[in-house]
Amino acid sequence: MNPIVLVVAGRVTRDAVPALCTQLETLLNDPRSAALDPAAPVECDVGGTERADLALVEAVARLALVARRAGRQLRLRRVGPELQGLLDLVGLADVVALEGPVSPRESPPEAARADRTAGTSAPRPGSSASPRSPRPGRR
């Protein structure tokens, strides 16, 4: 049996997100989908998208909600490194499944991920955490 697959291609805009959700709902309500394993994930191929931006991240988040309401998980296919980085940044990488192993070029090792946030906890001059203006309730 073939899984439920939604292909997202081209440039995804915020205006296109409701139509993508409607398209997924139609696929989920198709009588042929009822014959599939109800626990099987919904697959979403994003390899044909033009660019990874917050509109695409919003589409992924909303599609994941549609899938979850149907009792399924959203699994992304052909996720590029830019989209994977954005999904990691906003915390959606734990909500959607990413298909297959990601090559080292597409995903930085754990040490490199830690380096992305290295040094961000130190106070900067003029920030609310600078010594000249301590935060209320902190010593």
General description of the model:
The protein starts with a strand and ends in a 23-residue tail after the last helix. The longest helix has 16 residues, at 54-69. The chain is globular. Strands 1-2-3-4 form a 4-stranded parallel sheet. α3 links the parallel β2 and β3 (74-77). The chain is α/β, with parallel strands linked by helices and 139 residues long. It is built from 5 helices and 4 strands. Helices cover 36% and strands 14% of the residues.
Describe the secondary-structure layout.
Blueprint lengths: L4 E6 L6 H13 L1 H4 L7 E8 L4 H16 L4 E4 L3 H10 L6 E2 L11 H7 L23
Parallel strand pairs: 1-2, 2-3, 3-4
Summarize the structure.
By secondary structure, the protein is of the alpha/beta class. It has five helices and four strands; from the N terminus they run βααβαβαβα.
